[in-house]
Amino acid sequence: MPSTTAKRPILIVDDEPEMLHSLKNLLRHDYQVFTALSGAEGLRILETEIIHLVMTDQRMPEMSGVEMLKHVRSEHPAAIRLIFTGYADVKSVIAAINQGNVFRFLSKPWEPEELLTVLRVAGEHHDHLAQRHTLMMEMARYDQECNQFCDEMLAGKFGTLTNEGAEKTERLLGKSRELLGKLDRSLAAATGRSMQ
After folding, report:
1. Are 62 and 18 in contact (CB under 8 A)?
2. Domain that holds residue 50
């Protein structure tokens, strides 16, 4: 979670400048707001800035919001993706949610309090996923260290092991790899790597 002095970075994409201005004014106290007038411009910003949340309008010329968020999902999977749209576009947005390209959608016109609540939840989701990723990296490093230690023990680096000690070491090593694999699969299912 960002510190009290750091603002969470958010990218807002909409082809209507007045909408961007309105959203920037609403969010500027709590977020570091980046804005783009098109999906292509938004993707360029993502190449140079670390962004936690990406919120886009669905109806835009050249690249729809759903199309843009598909790119974000594949190229910047850590960013949580949100979309706002009018009633006519709800079916395409629901399809995007089901495919894991969108975390949430807001209908137009949106209520400021609802928007702020959804963004807070999305930010918490981002932090939760980042913590899980960090935990998995730490677990992988620990597993690697255990593997190296077990290999060194089996090679006799720390003295001679009895047959029973060698078997137990190999069993523990196998169990460690099995548990790490289960944890990885469990986290993948819980977070829906499809959403990543």
Report:
1. no
2. 8-127
